[in-house]
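Hello again,

I reread your note about wanting to compare the complex against the isolated chains. To keep things tidy I'm splitting this into two emails, and this first one only covers the full assembly. Below are the input lines as submitted, including protein chains and any nucleic acid or small-molecule components. They are followed by the predicted structure of everything together. The single-chain runs will come separately.
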Amino acid sequence: MRKTLITTVPAALIALGLATAAQAVIKIGASVSATGPAAFLGDPEAKTLQMMVDDLNAKGGIKGEKVDLVLYDDGGDANKARTFATRLIEDDGVQAIVGGTTTGTTMAILSAAEDAKVPFVSLAGAIDIVQPVKPYTFKTPHTDRMACQKIFADMQKRGFTKVGLISGTDGFGASMQAQCKDVAGDYGIGIVADETYDPKDADMTAQLTKIKNTAGVQAVLNPGFGQGPAIVTRNYHQLGIELPLYQSHGVASDGFIKLAGAEAAEGVRLPGTALLVADQLPEGDAQKPVVTAYKSAYEAKYNQPVSTFGGYAHDGFALIVDAISRAGSSKPAAIRDALEQTKGFVGTTGIYTMSPEDHLGLDLSAFRMLEVKGGGWTIVN
Amino acid sequence: MSLLEIQALGISFGGVRAVHDVNFSVEPGEIVSIIGPNGAGKTTLFNMISGVYRPETGRVVLSGETVTGMEPFRLAKRGMSRTFQNLQIFQNMTVLENAITGFHLQERGPVLADLFNLPGSRRRARLAEAGARALLARVGLERAADRDAGSLSYGSLKRLEIARALAMQPKVLLLDEPAAGCNAVETDEIDHLIAEVAASGVAILLVEHDMKMVMRISNHIVVLDHGEKIAEGAPAEVSRNPEVIAAYLGTEAENADG
Amino acid sequence: MRISGKYWTLIFLAALIAVTPLFFPSGYYFRVGSLLFVNGLAVTGIVVLTGYAGQISLGQAGFAGIGGYACALAPVHWGVPPALAVVLGAAVSGVLAYLVGRPILRLKGYYLSVASLGFGILVAMVLNNERELTKGPDGINVPDIGLRGLLSDWGLNLTNGEFWYALTGICLLIGAWIALNLQSSPTGRALRALHGSEVAASTVGIDVARVKIQAFVISAIYASVAGSLMALQNKFVTPDIAGFLHSVEMVTMAVLGGVASVPGAILGAGVLTLLPQVLTVLAEYEQLILGLVMMGVMIFLQEGLVPSILRWFRGRDE
Amino acid sequence: MSELLQFVFSGITVGAVYALVALGFTIIFNASGVVNFAQGEFVMLGGMITVFAHAAGLPLPLAALIAIVVTAAVGVALNRLAIEPARGAPVVSLIIITIGASIFIRGASQLIFDKQIHSFPAFSGDDPIHVLGATILMQSLWVIGGALAVFAGLWLFFTKTLLGRAVLATSNNRMAAQLVGINTKFVMTLSFALSAAIGAFGGVLVTPITLTAYDVGLALALKGFAAAMLGGMGNPKGALVGGLLLGLLEALTAGYLSSQYKDAAAFVIILAVLFFMPQGLFGRKSTDRV
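Full-complex prediction:
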């Protein structure tokens, strides 16, 4: 380990020197939470961005111009994210920013980007990021509100009207919990139990027992990410609760099944992206080539399964590159205009069509309802 | 009515009686010494009188007011001051600041005045500093005023502690082994200092192992053994008391420096 | 002798704040500068509590959270101007510190740190859980302080970065001045005395419990104002501001630089504010290096950077 | 009734995890008076090293043994490189040193291992045991048994063995201990090795329940620290009771009051206990000697 440190420091310094020496015309900035409590989300995002910029430059960059990625790790701290946003804009002079792993860090970057009129593509879920629309802010993940809608639509189809919620108290879980309570009525669904757990808790059987003993509950939904949902799923199995369990897109990865145990995870449903079921997509699916290419490249390079979150970063970076090449300019205002005119752009998360009123450009069709069957994800029709 | 009255004071630690049923009194200007072999309960008695320990039985009466178990800072306001057997110097301060702290009751004022360095605060601090410098001169430490307290010799620290205790202009002063660890010259100086303070009307309660000093300056001696008072009286009387001699001889053999 | 030392410190600090911007290559440096000043202000409060009075709190961030959220909530819910919300937050923090301090300051050493830690965690938990009021873990917007517009009406046009650099710099100077006043004042001496020996402090008439609470309240107000300035500057605040890690960060900054002295603590804030910005090149190793720096300084320079360096210089003179 | 029992099972499971962490604090504290904030990192190392050794093909028991030995070595290194050289430093400096150590170990782990969440199979399968309508996992029994075993071991060590009494003597008065011929340096080394080994042992036991990642240490350390304080720092009985009590408090609050404020309830109780018993439930009362 000491050896790597000694060899890496000079290497990093040399790389830094080269980066400034090369005629890097286009600078894209990124601040993601590669460490800290949201590292589970931010780590694959950072890796994806690094991989994509290397690929892009190996292929000659954008119309012959190399792209320089300035990547910072904000550790999930909004205050740090705000500092890095200022640094990206004022010191590094980037033309566009991608990042903001959590809603908190996104909000901190957002105000700096809007003030400086630099386009910013966020990787966080909350609907407040793009609603109301802010001129320079875009985002790639579906909103947590959409995830709730997708899940409740599925519940409605199965005839459930009384649902128990058990949510993580982190930003992801708490925000989705609030959105789900907000839209449940639209689907004729009542929330009859509403429990929470701390993301680092070791056991959730107390909360689940309470839900289990609530009269009339027909299904349970668990908004959250990280190890919490895996423990909830195990405890659910331990308590022998027979009701259908829905997870959120926060745990849409193969890792979740491994952590929860195939037996406990059997039958769990969640709204996921095409990325998770790349090999099951029908041949004609527009997303299939994009998803397969990203998945195989990422897994080959990092020897880790892809995650939905890395996919968000993929789409964010690709959207900016697409906008720059369409705009034929790397001026921030031109990139912003081109981003807003994005039409039918195929990403791993869905197919984006932006407009002045819609800076997300995805609809519910981007989500696919998935179910764990025989230890793997399958598409529910 | 005496200035300080100790009535049937007692305490035990973990079932062991450390001090039991001790009575005596101290008048203004009088020097009363408490002697006894090691472990007789002298320091424990001091700690009870000065409010560090809360006595289980008995009363402490100061100027006619019962002050039993009162916290030390309340006793300080009522005119009681003390020094410690194992020094309690503020090591994180200079010598001068240590002495100024003794003037706390005179120099304290509204916190806001202190925070914003208002004239009132500066005036109080100035007065206290002048008083402290005068006291340091009195105990011979004026040259060391700006040194870190931690850098002083043991004997100097002893004198600094006495200076700090005198700064409060106490009515009663408790001195716990003021001459311990001091050389002959220093002991002599402390000896004079104590006599001088007593002459100004302060009642002094003294614990000291240096018997020559005790016999020389005390007006009255209280002898403790195993937590109980076994004798009391004028120095000459006490030194002839067979029980006292027995108590001392009994321990002298084990513990030569007593 | 002490008096001149105090003013030299302040003059040096003021000169540093005024002159360094001449060398700033970009607006980002104003941002880093103002971060440093805000951290320096919070840490000056730690000097009062830990450096002077010797009490260790691992819950200071709780007060920063109260200050920060006062600026987010009071203007929106009660129409208080943001600048006054800073005062309101400080008042709430002070009162809370008084109420909480009474029971917990009886505790010593580690027991005091766990109790204050519990307090900080409780504040963070309330900020996280009371979504109706605080919008939960994702944070909440904070209104503009509005003073910049006022200044430009008077013909003083500053960029956002410059404005905050100046404002936080001035606040730090005032904070340092107050803490330095305290140090050589009767109350400050009482605090340092109880640090040296509680029992001796009590015997000279110092009401130990009372002055401990005074120190706790003062340090809480420092933390609260720092939290308010941070929130107003970012125009956004999340419950992380009240988190355990933020508390530890403050104590570490103070102790690293030298908790017994104001300039020391501010230097510590400087080092730990700049370190992550310098280490972005080695982002992967940031934690490793931060941990090493913390251990190294505490092992080799036990009193912190400034006192140890001063001692070294003095030692060479003799 | 079965509901209450389920809450109790949940509380005991979590409480045993806290107790294991809290027990790790006691030895180092007893020997050196240092609260080691890196104790949570020992637990993390126990889990992570086992995960990676197991993934590399070693059988689980051997992987666990390696994890415990390696972590004990890390503990010894921590003592030799960071604690011994700083002896005599004030409490707040020691707090910063151990927090620095915890940040360092975390930073190293994220480089050596990764930032993913991991687990390994439970020792005796995932099938729960049913008792009067409530369920508990076999692994929970392992954790509870582990906590009890460590407690019993520590109790015997401190009361019955010469070495254990040497540790206590060292904590009471290092100088006196040296004078009567105790090798205090060895006692310190041993204490750090033991504490780290206990932490790692805990990590091995709890990982199938709590899962593990490079950053789980801090949360565990905080809860374990709070539990140790509740029981009275330095007393193995206090650590065990404090941990179980904390777990039960959380589970019962979550079950009967509000899961949102279960952690708050736990801390409020701790504050209340410290208010009435400033040394914790079983802590020794110290008298100022002046």
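For quick reference: Residues 67 and 224 of chain C are 4 Å apart (CA to CA).

B.
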